[in-house]
Amino acid sequence: MADTENTEQEVIARTAAAYTGGGTQRDAVTLPTDLFDGTINFPVMHHAVKAYLANQRQGTASTKTRGVVTGGNQKPWKQKGTGRARQGSTRAPHWVGGGTVFGPTPRDYTMGTNKKVKVLARKSALNARASEDSLFVIDRFDYDAPKTAQLLGLLESLGVNGKKVLILTDGVNRNVYLSCRNLPSAHVMPFSDASTYHILWSDVVLVESGAIGQSLAPVAEGEKPARKTAAKKAPAAKKTAAAKKTTARKTSAKKEK
Question: Which DSSP symbol is given to 58?
Fold first, then answer.
């Protein structure tokens, strides 16, 4: 008898670089195999993105045909004897102010997508970013208040500032959302709300560890390099020295008088 044993390929666990909320690098994290199994289905991703963009269309574009345009009921001139071409209405398409031929009318652009197709497309998009080493895991976004500078510092530490960044949080995080609102190339949303379009739109994906079922112990933040302030203080020192010289000159001039 032929061997009927299951010969399914083993899924190789994939790892991703991990960072703290302040940008300090930590040990790599093993991604869950149920979601990051290496599956990348391009036709399914194409259909999901096409359906998403189609569903964003309002479909309210509308034009008027010659039967709907106001006016033109009366014949502009008699049929014969004028030497001009015969005309029946001033609202014909070739007249100024006339109707439109084959123009757009309100329609529904909605495209349906099966639930399994959506899941597979989203899974493929995440695997595509992970295979490109463009997916980073952040232990947690512990923001006490909205602070754009704090989030910008994280992006600079990761070297992704200026790229299109998608930040996926573990649930709704209002402080992170408000911190990212002024950054045109970054977008924040809960991990469960991210669609295939959003993932493929981004160049880099930052995922909070709790969103993928990982619990990372907190680590100490690394020391950040101090900003250069000596160059700013030097001109101030020069101005002070110049002011002292000017005062000394004025005092000596008064004494001579």
Answer: -
